[in-house]
Amino acid sequence: MNGNRETILVVDDVPDNIDVLVGILREDYRVIFATNGPDALATAQRQKPDLILLDVMMPGMSGFEVCTRLKHDIRTRDIPVIFITALSEFRDEEKGLGLGAVDYLHKPSHPAVVMQRVRVHLQLHNQNRALEDKVRERTRDLEQSRIEIVRRLGRAA
């Protein structure tokens, strides 16, 4: 992240689509972009965005393939992915969500809807991270308590 601003990776092969999304998001977020699947994967691994907006129909590597690879890579699997695409068939949406995307928006999307979906998914992602941190901390505390109990029992025997 850049300061307190969360980073959004926009992935689309059409520059006008990137410009629209950057225009919607740039006041509230740091926005980076990629124009193809391989660049998206490299950027996600290198810059660890907080959320990815991903087109489906791209030459060479589809957004579905990008999402699959992101979700199978330990470095990127926890990054929320929102598909934003012209594909509006139920099967496409089902496939995208089945691959691990947290949402699926149809183009053209209203700017207010894009902003709200991004906000909601970032809030949920941040809440999940905070809960995971608390669980890890509590697990460490319990393990320390268990070790101390075992030591005391060992001394008493």
Features:
alpha/beta, five-stranded parallel sheet, 157 residues, 15% strand, elongated
According to CATH, what is the class? Alpha Beta
Q: How far is the first residue's CA from the last residue's CA?
A: 53 Å
Question: What series of H and E elements makes up the topology?
Answer: EHEHEHEHEH
CATH topology: Rossmann fold
Query: How many structural domains in the coordinates?
Result: 1
The CATH architecture can be given as 3-Layer(aba) Sandwich
For the largest beta sheet, what order do the strands appear in spatially? Answer: 2-1-3-4-5
User: What is the C-alpha radius of gyration, as a whole number of Å?
Assistant: 20 Å
Mean pLDDT: 92
User: What is the CATH superfamily label?
Assistant: Response regulator
Q: What form results from the Cα inertia axes?
A: elongated
Percentage of residues in strands: 5-15%
Question: Count of helical segments?
Answer: 5
Q: How would you explain this protein's 3D organization?
A:
By secondary structure, the protein is of the alpha/beta class. The protein has one domain: Response regulator (Rossmann fold, 3-Layer(aba) Sandwich). It is built from 5 helices and 5 strands, in the order βαβαβαβαβα. The protein has helices spanning about 15-25, 35-45, 65-70, 90-100, 110-155; strands at about 5-10, 30-35, 50-55, 80-85, 105. It has a 5-stranded parallel β-sheet with strand order 2-1-3-4-5, with helices on both faces. The termini are far apart. The mean pLDDT is about 90.
